[in-house]
Amino acid sequence: MFGSNLLPNLGEVVAMILFGIGFANLLLQKNLIKKIIGLNIMDTAVYLFLAIKGYIEGRTAPIVVNGVQEVEAYINPIPSGLVLTGIVVSVSVTALMLSLTVRLYRRYHTLDLDEISSRLKKEGI
To answer: Which residues span the membrane (predicted)?
Structure first.
């Protein structure tokens, strides 16, 4: 019963596993770079899930070719647009997080979040 639904939904399962790996990495790691990698894995899992859900077997990209204008011939373009927009936003967020991580490293000479937190408490911030 469980195995009969696994193969048709393999992409969704892979996306959920990737999201779980990224989430666990985000929660369990103390290194800031590893946390950023975990967040990027989670982003990728969401984009994979949206791309899989937006694809319809037997349909093509929504570009009118050879005069075919029936809606049933094309996939829904909204998930693809969401994925592209999400990728642009996640690259910007990753760049911001990395720049803040560099600033923290220059100030505290460590990437360990617990060590940075304890030094902040000592400074009274």
So the answer is: 6-28, 37-56, 76-98
What CATH number does the domain containing 89 carry?
Answer: 1.10.287.3510
Q: Residue type for 81, please?
A: G
Closest CA to 38 of 97, 108, 80, 106: 97
| Residue with tokens 């990753």, as numbered in its chain | 94
pLDDT digit string, tens, across residues 77-93: 888 889 999 999 999 99
Distance CA 36, CA 13 (A): 23
pTM of the model: 0.85
- Give the structural domain span for 41: 2-123
Show the CA angle centred on residue 11, arms to residues 7 and 14, nearest 5°: 100
